[in-house]
Amino acid sequence: MGEKSSLAEVVDLAEQLHRRPSERDFESPPITVRDQSESSSAEQRTAAAGEVLRAVIRRIGPPTLYGGAAAGLAVRWRSEEQTVLLDCGIRGLRLSVWHTVELEAREEACSKQGECVDPSSYYGRLPYLWLLYRGVGSPPLTLPAVETAPDWH
Question: What's the sign of the alpha-carbon dihedral 54, 60, 64, 67?
Fold first, then answer.
């Protein structure tokens, strides 16, 4: 996909991952649906993410968890079996589907690695920095415990 993907294609992909994922979808790396270069302003990245998020919500419903990571948003449509993740990677906004147990175990392991000696690298590699449960879907049973950031930066 990428920058030239239409919004309709992005929404179709989200619906496929949410309603009818194949085993191949679970094995595939996240798919970049909106390229976001370093030259993109924060306002441009926010506008692109908002446009995609609103369109996906109209098609598949509200997410279970709204969140954010060092790179940007991390929004989830979670069930006991699978989690569709809309997040920001190095190349831009991306969609993926995961077996819920595997994703949460992977994130727990990321949260346990190392100590917070260098805050920028420690918090930068965490899968998310905050999550807000909105009362739809199934919430995680536990969330990884990490050190509290010493300051905003």
Answer: negative
d(CA 44, CA 135): 29
In the chain, the amino acid numbered 149 is A
If you search the block for the tokens 């879907």, which residue do you land on?
137
Length of the chain: 153
Residue entry with tokens 């699978």: 82
The pTM for the full model equals 0.82
Phi and psi torsions of 16, nearest 5° = -60, -45
152 vs 19, 70, 72, 126, CA distance in Å?
38, 12, 15, 16
pLDDT of 137 strictly over 90: no
Rounded Cα distance, 87 and 103, in Å? 14
Per DSSP bridges, beta strands 31-35 and 65-69 are: unpaired
